[in-house]
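Progress against Task 2.4 (sequence-to-structure conversion) is shown through the following example record, which the project officer requested during the mid-term review.
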Amino acid sequence: MLATKRGDLQQKLINRARALGVKVRYYPVSQLRIAIKDGIESAQTIVNPNDLTDRTTIVIASIELTRALEHYFDVVWKKAELT
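Structure tokens generated for the chain above:
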């Protein structure tokens, strides 16, 4: 999991995720979120920078696009800092 913000609340969520065995790193991404499910399906969420509660999510049922998003995640993961 990539944490995209730092703060007390985020650290609590990171600690909870780690307690479940999730590996977490930090990388500042402000307007894009991705989720990948079993390399088969993914979701891409775009966040409105003027209203962080305004989001649009696209569910992707394409293995090819999901693989491309996995590759993007892996590139960002390598650049991300350990938290």
